[in-house]
């Protein structure tokens, strides 16, 4: 069950970028499904939209956030978060916060390549 909702959320983030995001191309579901057979000039949009890295970045970000919250499922084998509140596991919460901060840092800081000859 966990894999099902993680997979649906990840694919949903990818599809959301193409279908509904105001900064995305806002294509239809059938156009997205036919992306592998896209021919340049045959549509009102460019096939280059399917090479854009942003939908994959959205998917990765959704996956990171879902997995960080999924880590809270490891608090107890047979009890809910109502009986084992997460704030009692400060190391786990710290690790989750650090992971999310590092992910945001990776996304927000531009890469600079340094080559020494």
Describe it:
The chain has 117 residues and is mainly α. The chain has one domain. It has 4 helices and no strands. Helix 1 runs antiparallel to helix 3 and helix 3 packs antiparallel against helix 4. It is flat. It starts with a helix and ends in a 9-residue tail after the last helix. The mean pLDDT is 87.
C-alpha-based Rg, rounded: 19 Å
Arithmetic mean of pLDDT: 87
**Alpha-carbon distance between the two ends:** 52 Å
Oligomer: single chain
Task: Considering the chains and any ligands shown, give keywords for the structure.
single chain; 117 residues; mainly alpha; 4 helices; 50% helix; 0% strand
Secondary structure layout:
Blueprint: H1 2-19, H2 29-33, H3 54-70, H4 90-108
Provide a quick synopsis of the model.
With about 120 residues, this protein is mainly α. The protein has four helices and no strands.
